[in-house]
Amino acid sequence: MNDVLELLLNLDPPELPCKQVRLKRLSELCGRDVVFELKALPFSRVAEIKKAHAGDEEMGLHILLGGVVSPNLKDKRLAEKYHAHTPAELLKKLLLPGEIEDLSREIELLSGYRTLTLEDVKKK
């Protein structure tokens, strides 16, 4: 077990994983690729979202708001274009419910949820 300690001590603190995804429907409407950059959420942000939105039907929306790196959902031009007062309202107007769910799921996967993160150690 000391080997594991040494491995962890020699490891640089890992950065949160990121991923780019193409939104099919918006890409077709724009005639060019519409790509969102997503990033895993840190533990503290997940805890905040769970505390504020446990059992809330909009929890996925808040996961999405926390994990979208690009485009900037707080850009005033987007808010004006879609007559949205908040980034959450913007997403509801811009995306279909299934797209919000799919993007939220991708952020959850990046954050280590909805996937197996452990494996059994086989005895030799």
From TrEMBL:
It holds the Pfam family Phage_TAC_5. InterPro entries: XkdN-like, XkdN-like_sf. It comes from the Bacteria. This is Uncharacterized protein. It comes from Ligaoa zhengdingensis.
